[in-house]
Design brief:
alpha/beta; binds pyridoxal-5'-phosphate; seven-stranded mixed sheet; 12 strands; 2 domains
Length: 383
Amino acid sequence: MHPEESAHTDTRLVALGRPVAENAAALNPPIVLTSTFRSAGDPEEGDRVYARYSNPTWEPLEAAIADLEGSEVPGLAYASGMAAVAAAFSLVPVGGTVVVPSASYNGTIGLARELSAGGALVLREIDPLDLAATEAALDGADLLWIESPTNPMLDVVDLPALVAAARERRVTVVVDNTFSTPLRQRPLLVGADVVVHSATKYISGHSDVVLGLLIARDADVRERLLRQRTLHGAIPGPFEAWLALRGLRTLALRLDRSEANAHELARRLEHHPALARVRYPGLPADPNHERARAQLDGYGAVVSIELDSVERADAVVSALRVFTPATSLGGVESLVERRRRHPAEPREVPAGLIRLSIGIEHVDDLWRDLEQALEYATGTTGD
Ligand SMILES: Cc1ncc(COP(=O)(O)O)c(C=O)c1O
């Protein structure tokens, strides 16, 4: 269980973060439940001191995610994805300028707007598909936020071009890689500085954990983030970190199956007369398809569909039986949500858009469920 560095990702996922391979050792890291450590020496000597500073249960997960994202320095685990997002914004000096897409995940853009309203930073909102406008916004900025594919519109942005434009201007680039996971996209290798994950989603994979991760490319950025985490205290519980590592072991299998299901459902839904639009970057007709093909190693497991009215969209959600109506995504079970039911959802998201997080059920059961719900809600069949 200690494969070569060149082993396939699927093999590394199984082996990463295991305890040392000695006789009688447990295969899995222990869950260390403690608030403090015996330590009488000099804290600067590297002793463990206090469990807000470090916990041995976080470290296998932090090492594993850094390996997968292609960083030489360990990742950092947080109490939630939003705690990780907030920590990334802390890289911006007070009064500094951040460039953030208006249609980012609503928590991210919501936080940026709050920080800006309180005077902590200056916010320039952009549409990252408009490269020229984004480049102009980067002049004099401190940080560029990128989410790709975006939640829930599934737009794929030109990651290499945006990163290059930011680097030219010495702007720090943070990429939210929650939707793709390191199995489908590795932003640090394209030149991004920091990757964010809501590990609540695909990494944990079973809708039973709330957890965030940051992975920095450089040791000094990691050091600043570690200091911020220690002082602000948004640390994960050891059990959550342990569950996230356990979830990671099956990420390749879960993602392959969910993604294959999503692709097939998107194909079948594409010409359904009840739908105004189907968004999935794997469809050749999707406006971002060519870019997605060039940048991603797979199109992911979220499909967004648009109904022409809120009432019809809500009727579809309530008629589904295999899909569960719930927020979140990335678990083994399929979830459905009309995103604009949240008042905080960006106005760019159409009111009748439904986000489908596709799980690992049999695709025909998911299809039958969608067919009957669309027929019930709109009176139209896909035949
Ligand atoms: C793309 C994206 N980033 C960040 C977050 C925030 O993560 P968490 O809910 O774990 O705090 C989410 C949550 O839905 C998300 O979808």
